[in-house]
Amino acid sequence: MTARVGDKLPPVEVPLTRTLIVATALASRDYQDVHHDPDAARERGGKDVFMNIMTTNGLVGRFVTDWAGPEATLKRVKIRLGVPNYPGDTMTLTGTVSAIEGGVATVDVRGANSMGDHVTGTVEVEVVPAREAEAETEPTRKC
Amino acid sequence: MPLDLTSYVGASAGPPFPAPVAVNEAMIRHWCEAMGDGNLRYAGGTEAPPTMLLAWTMPGFGKTPAPRLGTQGELMAKLDAAGFTSVVATDTEEEYVRYLRPGDHVTATTIIENVSDEKKTGLGVGHFVTTATTFTAAEGEVVGRATFRILKFEPPPKTDPAPPRPRPPVNRDNQFFWDGTLENELRIQRCTSCQALRHPPGPMCPRCRSLSWDYIVASGRGTVYSHVRHHYPPMPQFGSPHNVVLVDLEEGVRFVSNLLDESAEIVIGMPVQLVFTKVADDYVLPQFQARRPGEAERQFGVAE
Question: Which of A40, B154, B201, B271 is the right S-S partner for B291, CB 3.0 to 4.6 Å?
């Protein structure tokens, strides 16, 4: 896979079903009531149950590896949450390659729902094996 | 007084926390199914999605989460006691040194990296608590690192919709009165023996002890005899605070009700006019509003 600075990742739409929010919270072994119990979530000031941060992290990682392919290796995922992901909404993930260094691409990621940005962050992903990355620095290499 | 939490900065969050189970194919599969992640690297469970890092050392259902143990638990208890009872994760940074494989036994060792001063946020006032966790496998091999920032905050007061207005008990003695309200009539009971009017409804004339009665329909005009503004205990089902007025109806009986305009100044002797407020299809309340000269004699209001 070859990546260039400025490349845009194919956007991914994630339908935020209640089932997705609950199933992913449990798959990440997060049993906090606000991620599965609507009454408890409202009691704590939410509108409804909302997605847990580990799931957001997992979806951001998946978004990047779906683009980068199974040979790619995630090195770092850094995210900041904004508005919550509530059931019934859709989160659209978009991303742009902002840097490539030593075979590691930095992707700026944004996940927005109807209320605004749910997540913004950067993902560092090793897109080509290290040996090829060295070759990539040679000016003769064709992209 | 602001909390002094500086002594927690740099402290160990608690003893190292070993994952309850080793990295395994079942949990990898469960995660990939839920996340919709079809990456071939994880298929067959040979490698774990790196973003699962934190999941391995989650304590599980019904268990005390790691943040509730040790020094971090003490910090959380202190924040709870100060009213910062809610928690929300705000940002994370995870570094994956290598992908985990089934059989890896992961241990999380956490320090409290930072505790912010009191901050005003969109969610409420609170403190940000940042923890830094190092994940190790066998022989202390570092497999990943995570910085996790949460906001411990005081949830804003709830704005639940007001509970519905309670219904009056309707019985054989006052059925005619409540039936009247549905017809937008304020009915005043009248003794058919001595012609005395009475309210509230009852089976016997307090004047002549006759049990026979009928009713007349009030004009709807009256004046405020007395009033009070109810503050405590809060009664959200009536609106809180709310006014209570005692109205002298021009027919000569007194009637307990409310003045609809909460902002109006209520003065003893002020003229008031009956208004019917529809609470539900089968529940209409006789209430009052200030009567101004020249205004129509009877009006029908509808509650929103």
Answer: B271
Beta bridge mates, B111: B12, B132
Please judge whether A27 and B35 are an interchain contact, meaning their C-beta atoms are less than 8 angstroms apart: yes
Residue A143 lies in a domain: no
The SS3 call for residue A133 is: helix
Whether the CB of A17 is below 8 Å from some CB of chain B: the reply is no
Residue A18, chain B, CB below 8 Å: the answer is: no
What domain count does chain A have? Answer: 1
- CA-to-CA distance for B66 and B72, rounded, in angstroms? 8
Report strand pairing: B271-280 vs B299-302. parallel
**What confidence tens digit (pLDDT) does each residue in B54-68 have?**
999 998 888 777 677
**Where in the sequence is the domain holding A91, given as residue range(s)?**
12-136
Interface with A, mutate which of B17, B24, B87, B92 (most A CBs under 10 A): B92
**Given CB atoms, is B83 within the 8 Å cutoff of chain A?**
no
* Average pLDDT value for residue range B79-89: 90
Q: Verify whether the Cβ–Cβ distance A28 to B50 is below 8 Å.
A: no
Residue boundaries of the structural domains of chain B: 6-153, 175-302
Which of A1, A21, A28, A64 to mutate against chain B (most B CBs within 10 Å)? A28
Other Cβ atoms less than 10 A from the Cβ of A130: the count is 10
Q: Which of A97, A103, A63, A32 is nearest to B89 (CA)?
A: A32
Span of A103-107, B48-52, B230-234 with lowest mean pLDDT = B230-234
> Regarding beta strands B271-280 and B221-230, do their DSSP bridges make them parallel or antiparallel, or are they unpaired?
antiparallel
What pTM did the predictor assign?
A: 0.66
Predicted local confidence at residue A122, as pLDDT = 98
How is domain B6-153 classified at the CATH fold level?
Thiol Ester Dehydrase; Chain A (3.10.129)
- Does residue A63 lie within any of the structural domains? yes
Nearest residue of B to residue A61 by CA position?
B51
Task: Identify all chain B residues contacting A60, using CB atoms and an 8 Å cutoff.
Answer: 51
Which among B59, B96, B124 has the least Cβ separation from residue A76?
B96
Say if the Cβ atoms of A57 and B35 lie within 8 Å: no
Residue A141 in domain: no
CATH code at position A62: 3.10.129.10
ipTM confidence:
0.89
Interface A–B counts its CB contacts (< 8 A) at: 103
Tell me which residue in A29, A70, A75 faces B39 most closely, judged by beta carbons. Answer: A70
Using one digit for the tens of pLDDT, what is the confidence trace for B95-150?
Answer: 999 999 999 999 999 999 999 999 988 888 999 999 999 999 999 999 999 999 99
User: What is the pLDDT, as a whole number, of residue A84?
Assistant: 94
